[in-house]
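Task card 7
Instruction: Convert sequence to structure tokens.
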Amino acid sequence: MENFIGDIPVIKNGKRDVERDFEGEVYYDFGEPFGVVPVSSIGHPETFSLPRVLPNIQNISIKLALYPIEIQRTLKTLTLTGLTSTEPIEVNGQTVVPRDVTLTLLDKVTPRTELFENEHPEPLSSSAIEIRGKKRWQ
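Output:
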């Protein structure tokens, strides 16, 4: 969850920047069996390590899709409604942290995959790397 929420470091136009929760969501075609799915920026070390060896790099964002896709949609909904926030709020005279409440309630669903039982029965993953630009080799 931590990789998807909060300030997500990216490089835009050669400068360090941040994207907020699901702000950088785009659609990517992974082919079968996945097809076109939404991918979102996640926090990952490449946004810090790659500029060290490629100082003129202009754009870096690491994006990920969760599968089954309903997991990603659920996380996005929870995040956009504030249920993954770590900022305490008052509810009926009690101070609670929304994220703590959300995680506590989700832990009651066992196994969590039952929420998505109509999806693919086995875990699947896919990755793609796109590199655009020119490099002068010395």
